Amino acid sequence: MTEWIGRLGYVWVEGQVAQVTRRPGQRTAFLTLRDPSADMSLPVTCSVALLDGPAAGLAEGAHVVVHARPQFYAGRGTLSLAADQ
To answer: Which strand (E) or helix (H) includes residue 3?
Structure first.
């Protein structure tokens, strides 16, 4: 399954930011993107530079569209997104 998901390429995903986590000194930030109508959420990783750019001031509750590549971690059985926009 990991290989198949890896071949999907980039996708655009729309949702509501449920959580933003930044760790001091780290280059990666973590978001939880939520779909209120489907009552589901998905973890998203992105660079801190992305959040400090045009998305500066991004807060929980914001409605966003992200350009990201799906990633599947077989060991944990989790699907996440790695955003670049």
So the answer is: helix 2-6
The mean pLDDT value of the chain amounts to 87
For residues 74 and 85, the model is more confident at 85
Mean pLDDT, to the nearest integer, of 46-60? 81
Report d(CA 15, CA 2) in Å as an integer: 24
Q: How far apart are CA 19 and CA 30, in angstroms?
A: 8
52: Cβ contacts below 8 Å, ≥ 6 apart: none
* Cα gap 43→18, rounded to integer Å: 10
pLDDT attached to residue 14: 93
Dist. CA 36–CA 67, nearest whole Å? 19
